[in-house]
Amino acid sequence: QQSNLTSYGATAMAIITLEAFAGMWINAFLACVLCIAWVKKKSLNSNEKILLLLGCSRFCSLCVSWVYSFLSIIYPNYLYVHTILQLAVFFQTFFSHCNLWFSACLCVFYCIKIASFRNSCFIYLKVKIDRIVPWLFLGSGILALAIGILAYDIADKPHCNNRNSTAQGNFWKANIKMDKHFFPSFFLAGFGYAASFMAVIFSAVFLLFSLWRHKRKMQTNSMKNFNMEAHIKAMKSILSFLVMYSINFVCLVLEMVYVTKKGSHMTFLIVVFKYAFPGVHSLTLIFSNPKLEKTLLKILP
């Protein structure tokens, strides 16, 4: 059984490394291209600002997650030294929730910027959206910081520092005992996922309703309508968000169920989907942006 767990750990680490480094490259590319554009133009629009912060947060999230996984599988004795585990949990939680909330901000931005409603509140938001975006960044950062501090507090428990149980041979048993005490952190993560997931769902519903209304008005118009194209393009992006968020949310639930079952096939699949999300989603964003897509296709050869 110990041999099987070791084999699972090596396989999982190989998959994590491949996906994490691919995701880091994609998000580093996204951030670098936008930074270069920022230097050249001296400014960025709100959409580019969100993409820049999203790329940076995902790059940091993948770095921290990879280091945490590497230490937990290869050098568990170093990870479970006091404060190292707590700091790893804090940074992992903080960057993960920044990633979630910046993604939700992008969906809300698309919805407000493109959807057409006559409601006075919606019109006000459409006019002021560029000024609201920095406040969304601030709110997302504060919320992610608060959840990160709570996760740090949960990890900073006496039972998390059982040094007698962190020998290489007893690592998996110690990890199982510790995971049982980490259910509050899973519920914190669930709150972040659920709240951002609801923002994506509402954005998709409002944008779909706006598209349906606009299509009814344009049925008698045979000319090419750019507003319709913008609706459809944004709808595709948000639907891709929705699909990936759904997979991520299911992975979180399954992770809570299979948290004590190290070495199972389901745990392996959860790891694969969990580390694939930041890279695949950012790649979708790159191909939905003509400038980023053109730059990527230019440098790939």
Automatic annotation (TrEMBL):
InterPro entries, per the entry: TAS2R (IPR007960)
GO molecular function, one term: G protein-coupled receptor activity
Coiled-coil residue spans: none
Record field: transmembrane: 12-39, 51-75, 87-112, 132-152, 186-209, 238-260, 266-288
Topology class, membrane: Multi-pass membrane protein
Subcellular location: Membrane
Entry keyword set: G-protein coupled receptor, Membrane, Receptor, Sensory transduction, Taste, Transducer, Transmembrane, Transmembrane helix
GO cellular component: membrane
Major localisation: membrane
Family note: Belongs to the G-protein coupled receptor T2R family.
Protein name: Taste receptor type 2
Organism: Struthidea cinerea
Gene field: Tas2r7_2
